[in-house]
Amino acid sequence: MTDTILVVDDDLGIQKQLKWSFTDYNVVFADDRTSAIAQLRRHEPKVVTLDLGLPPDPANASEGLKTLEEIIALAPRTKVIVVTGNNDKENALKAIELGAYDFYQKPIDSDTIKLLVNRAQNLAKLEDENRILAKTRPGMGRIIGNSDAIQAVVRRAEKIANTDISTLLQGESGTGKEVFARSIHDHSPRKDKPFVAINCASIPENLLESELFGYEKGAFTGANKTTLGKIETAQGGTLFLDEIGDMPLGLQAKMLRFLQERVIERVGGRNEIPVDIRVVCATHRDLQNMVAEETFREDLYYRIGEIPIMIPPLRDRDQDIILLARTFLNQYREEFNAKAKSFSDGAINAMLAHRWPGNIRELQNKLKSAVIMAEGSLVHAEDLGLMEPAQGAEPETLNLREVREMAESRAIRRAYQTADKNMSKTAELLGVTRPTLYSLIDKYHLEDVKTGA
Ligand SMILES: Nc1ncnc2c1ncn2[C@@H]1O[C@H](COP(=O)(O)OP(=O)(O)OP(=O)(O)O)[C@@H](O)[C@H]1O
């Protein structure tokens, strides 16, 4: 079904121009506030372009801003792109403050406004899909993301949630391993029992055993009373062992015994205590490699990872980056009572081009400080600290060839995302042929683009 967009403009010439620009859409028009609202109610478009200079006061933005307010009040999720007079930045920013998605200054250039509208339409669709997913999947609802990469993982996690199969969540730091572990628990028959998490890397080796298995009174100096370990506390529920790769070898043997026999002995105790828990483990390390190097027990490796789940890094989740960024922006705006409401184009491009070595946690941190630092209603790339080469993945260089290569790779990635991963469209946006695009992808080793990630 063709998507509908609403163009609010009283200039017939511009109406015509836009009709020809948006051949992929069903374009409906309105030329004043009343007809705009009527069209909005009738067609429920996801995207509206709104000229701020509307009758009866076309020389002024007041009627346009009023129309914007009514649209947002009636359908707050609509992406409104306001069109302002040349150099009318003040009203453009006012519009953003009122909840417009973006602004565009006249004169209208068909290609640019087409890009803006396509992007707004894609985002609105993503947000809709995510809302539907969140409703239909109560357990996995906390996982934000529509990319194929993350949805494949969600489906895998849903399938195993109902079972007691032990799962090993693998992925870079900050990719959401703990979020997945919790979601698996929330989606399982054990959901009303405890979810207990322990990070094997953050507890000193000599304390980890008693943290996990508990201890009897008098087991060691300072053991004044019998204390339950995390395993027993999770009785009936789920135990999440984060950074399992950091568990010392000695303790690995004890852990394996527990997983095989489902009984534990507290430190200093003699009784075998039966425990019924589900175990979910996670690591950012390459456990297979550790097994080869004999720093991780092979038998334990197979025991904890009956079904492994690989959580993709944020850079492989295409538009999810923007979806997550908007979610965090709204969250922090409320938390810090800040002004920032939306992102500048530069910020969006910078976020799509960044490699996010710290994944979602890094995105959260960058957004938190950007929301606090941003001076107006727009968050810019500089607020996110993404323009500083020292913070980015790319080293500062003055070598022209390297600069050119970096700029080209970035442009290819950006075009690829903007074109919704469609190679013909990507080539078109870049102004090259498809064969040239493919050879550039090879030349710059853009594996994510090559594999369609
Ligand atoms: N898909 C997601 N949607 C929303 N928030 C997410 C998502 N994935 C992760 N987060 C948030 O990102 C942060 C990092 O996630 P989490 O702690 O689960 O990562 P991790 O892989 O366990 O990291 P580490 O290995 O460093 O412990 C958390 O604040 C979490 O709430």
UniProtKB/TrEMBL annotation:
InterPro entries: AAA+_ATPase, AAA_lid_NorR, CheY-like_superfamily, Homeodomain-like_sf, HTH_Fis, P-loop_NTPase, PEP-CTERM_resp_reg, Sig_transdc_resp-reg_receiver. Pfam families: AAA_lid_14, HTH_8, Response_reg, Sigma54_activat. GO terms for biological process: phosphorelay signal transduction system; regulation of DNA-templated transcription. Residues 4-121 form the Response regulatory domain. One of its GO terms (molecular function) is sequence-specific DNA binding. The keyword Transport does not apply. PANTHER family: ALGINATE BIOSYNTHESIS TRANSCRIPTIONAL REGULATORY PROTEIN ALGB (PTHR32071:SF113), TRANSCRIPTIONAL REGULATORY PROTEIN (PTHR32071). This is PEP-CTERM-box response regulator transcription factor. It comes from Salinimonas iocasae. The lineage of its organism: Bacteria, Pseudomonadati, Pseudomonadota, Gammaproteobacteria, Alteromonadales.
